[in-house]
């Protein structure tokens, strides 16, 4: 009889873990509380429009990179999946003229210096910082604790050669860093890359990836991306149980031996359990707060050092062909919007005008992510009054629409669908802690640590998920899933 593995959660990390374990010959069953796979890698339909809920750009679309090999092994990418690599990362309209941030870093440097000669020194420093993050491919062959010096040497050599960003940027957020530039055009373009509350190294990292020929868009979007992984897993012989919420992990004599489902008296047994849910759900629900973990406790206890991104997501359906428009545009509405304690002054709108799934029949889709940390506000509002909750969502949608029409006045009256997903939405459907869509993001001065992927006092339980890596995101979620599988295969003395 084959050894059996249970995987809790069918997000990216769970699917990757399940596929690698199954390809090695073990029996795998996955349990998912939702009715679809993908976790935060998702999308949904509203009034004839499809709203993408996750991928803005994807590390690992470049052939030959380690993450690309994971995506291909797991069916997420293949020669049949077209990748859109944009020429223009971000755009802004200023005084009637449109400016761009390009995926060609040399062109970006030239044009930013032309836009603002007085920012020439700051631009060149930024370009040097970005170059340090180009082509830093994370090693994927084995979990880091299993690597010897020679396994890690190629990556360490790249790190040494790339150098480190300016020391003074360590404690900066992107908002802080924008003050280095006098030109409002440059500040607006850089505001479109990542939420500006994030540490500035994330700006350098993301632009490093996207100017290295990586970071494209897999056509079809997030939901199709997850569906391809699901098909790969099921075609390998794996089994997924949908709408089956795991209530707890069964631990006996210091070993994970199975799971107990919600609303089911049975106990189900396996040789190994992989948790592919967020850290709060694992520690406080599935393990009933009986097994403390110093790594996660530190992250939860120090929000000033470890940020968790949440936000409100606005999807818009537009009765217009947007194929000639830039795809990622800075927007500053006439007046700021206050959501409880958060003041929103600007946003970037993503136009899905390059993908036929989102841009067809003369209609298209726009998405806006408004970064805020107001989960408690949204929760209290909905509990107090469902109508007030809906009214607040409508107020936000109207503010976003007003800002877009201010930049593109020809779209007035053509936005015929709006859908607002709050942090409460993501908490409900994705079981994400306080609705966070990315895991613990350490500030620049904080040591970047990686979780060991196990819990002290419990054998045969392995952790997958973006929460095990600093900053998180889909590529690291995938890597964590591969590492969880490899840890099991090491115990089983099996090769991939």
Q: How large is the count of helical segments?
A: 15
Low-pLDDT residue spans: none
Which word captures the global form? Answer: globular
Mean pLDDT score, rounded? 94
Which sequence of strands runs across the widest sheet?
9-2-1-13-23
Q: How many strands, what sense, and barrel or not for the largest sheet?
A: 5 strands, parallel
Helix content: 25-40%
| Distance N to C terminus | 19 Å
Secondary structural class: alpha+beta
Q: What's the Cα radius of gyration?
A: 23 Å
Beta percentage is: 15-25%
- Total DSSP E strands: 23
Characterization of this structure:
The protein has 496 residues and is an alpha+beta fold. The protein has 15 helices and 23 strands. The strands form eight sheets. It has a five-stranded parallel sheet, covered by helices on one side. A five-stranded antiparallel sheet has the order 16-19-20-15-21, with helices on both faces. Helix 1 runs parallel beside helix 9 (221-235) and helix 3 (105-115) packs antiparallel against helix 4. The longest helix has 22 residues, at 386-407. The chain starts with a strand and ends in a 5-residue tail after the last helix.
Task: Give a brief outline of the structure.
By secondary structure, the chain is α+β, with helices and mostly antiparallel strands. It is built from 15 helices and 23 strands.
Key terms for this structure?
496 residues, alpha+beta, 34% helix, five-stranded antiparallel sheet
Lay out the secondary structure.
Elements: E1 4-8, H1 12-23, E2 27-31, E3 43-46, E4 49-52, H2 66-73, E5 83-84, E6 88-94, E7 97-102, H3 105-115, H4 120-131, H5 149-162, H6 174-178, H7 184-191, H8 200-210, E8 217-218, H9 221-235, E9 239-241, E10 246-252, E11 255-261, E12 267-269, E13 272-275, H10 279-286, H11 294-301, E14 306-307, E15 311-318, E16 328-331, E17 337-339, E18 342-344, E19 347-351, E20 364-371, H12 375-384, H13 386-407, E21 415-421, H14 423-430, E22 441-442, E23 461-463, H15 474-491
